[in-house]
Amino acid sequence: MTRVACLTLLLACVLWPGTGCAKADAKPNCNKMRACCTALKGVENGLPQEHEILCHHDPELDEGCVETIADIAKFTPSKTLPAVCR
Fold it and tell me: Which of 31, 54, 58, 75 is most deeply packed, by most CB within 10 A?
C-alpha cells in the first residue's frame, strides 16, 4: 500500500504542469537525462526495472539532473549503456 501511495505521488509530481525538464528554465543536463532515458527504452537489458524510477522523478529536485545521469550509468551494465548516457 505504501509503494502505491509513493508511486502515485511521484507520478503526480512528474505529470503536474510546469515541473521537470520541460520548464523553459530547466537546469543543465536535463535534456541529456531525457535523451538518455529515451535511449534506454530501446536497449535490451538496460536500466534494471527496480531503478527505472530514476527516469520518472522530478529532475528539478537535484543539481541539474547530473546525479540522475550518474546513477543511471551506475546501475546500467556498461555494455548496454547508450552513448548519450555517458
Answer: 54
